[in-house]
User: What shape does this take?
Amino acid sequence: MNWFLAVAVITSLIIAFYLGFRVINLFNLYKQGYFNTISKKIVWLMIVVGSLSFVLSRVFFSVSDYWLPLISSLVFSFILCLFYSIVIIDVLRLFLYLVFRRKGNYRLILQIIYITMTMVFFIVGLYMASAPRIINYQITIDKPARVKQLKIVQLSDIHLNQTTSRHFIQTMVNDVNSLKPDYIFITGDTLDQRLKPYLDKNLAELFAQLKSTYGTFIIFGNHEHYGIEREKNNSNEDVIKAFTAGNMKVLQDSVFYDNATGITIIGRDDYVVKNFGKTRADLPTLLSLVDENDPVILLDHQPQNLTEPADLGIDVMFSGHTHAGQIFPMTLVVNAMYKNAWGLEQPVANNPFMSIVSSGYGLWGPPIRLMTRAEIVVTELTFK
Assistant: This one.
C-alpha cells in the first residue's frame, strides 16, 4: 500500500496548491498588508492540513481510531467541495472574460457563488452518501427453475469501520427487510480491512436480523483480504466465523445448489488474492460442479472480466467494488476501467449473460458522493 500512500500525498498536495493560490486570488488576499499577510498564512495552513487530513488520519491511526478518522474524513470532504467549486469558478471567470472581452468587477458575486456552491456540494454529497436509493432491475432467464420468480436484494461495499454506527446498519437491515427478498446477496467489502469494529459493535446481531425466504449469501471483497492476518483475531477463518455468526452463508470459491428454488449460486474469492500469494479457483473448475441446465448466478466482487462468465454460460453476475466512481471525476475513471462500471448491462453481444454492478451501500474514504448515490439493488428474476 506504499504506492497508494504516495499517490494520495501527491494528489492531496496538488489539490492544496491549486486551491490555495486560487482562493487567495478570488478573495484578493495577495495585496500587501498585515491583515492580508496573516490571512494568507491561515488560509494556506488550513488548506494544506485539510488536504492531507485523510492521509494523516491513516498514518496516525494508532492515536485515535474513531474521532481522528471521523473528523479528518469530514474535513477532507469539505476540502474537495472547495476544490470543485473553485474549478467551476475559474471556468466561469474565463467564460465571462471571453464573452465580454474584459475582466469586469465580478469578484463579490463570484465570492458569494463560491461559498454557496461549496456548501451545496457538501450538503448534497453527504445526503447522496447517507440516503441510499432503491434500484430495481428485471431479468428473464431462459431456463426452468423450481420457482417462477425470485426477488434478490443486493448489498455491496458497506465498508464497516470504527466510525460505522449500529443505527446505520439497523437502518440498512430494516430497509432490506421491508423489500421482502427471496435471497440477499452481499457482494464484498463488507469490512473496511478490520474485523474488530464488526465484533466490538456486535454487528453480527444486526446482520442476523436480515430476513429472506432462502437465505443471505456473502462473499469476500478486496478489503476483507487487506486486513487478513494484519492484526489479532483477523484471519480468514475469523472473518468467516464472524459472518456465519450473523446468519450469513459465506461462499469463498464455492458452489451452492438450492433444492428449494433449483438455482445454483457460485461465490468467488476476490481477484486481489493473487497479491497475497494465494490463488482463487478458476471459473471453469467451479462450473464443473454445476448443472448448466439450471439457472446459474455468479457472485464476484470485482467486475474484472465479463467475457469469461458470458462464454461459460453464467446467467447473471452480481458485483460491486467500483462505487460507480463515488466522486467525480473518478466516475470517468471507473467507466474507462470496466466494461460495466455500474448498473445492469448485457456486456457481450448476442449473449444472454447479464452483469449487475452496484454502486454500494457504504463508502470508502470521504463520506460524500458527487454524481453518484448509495443504493440497494433489487433484481426480479423470471424463469422460463
Notes: The chain has twelve helices and twelve strands.
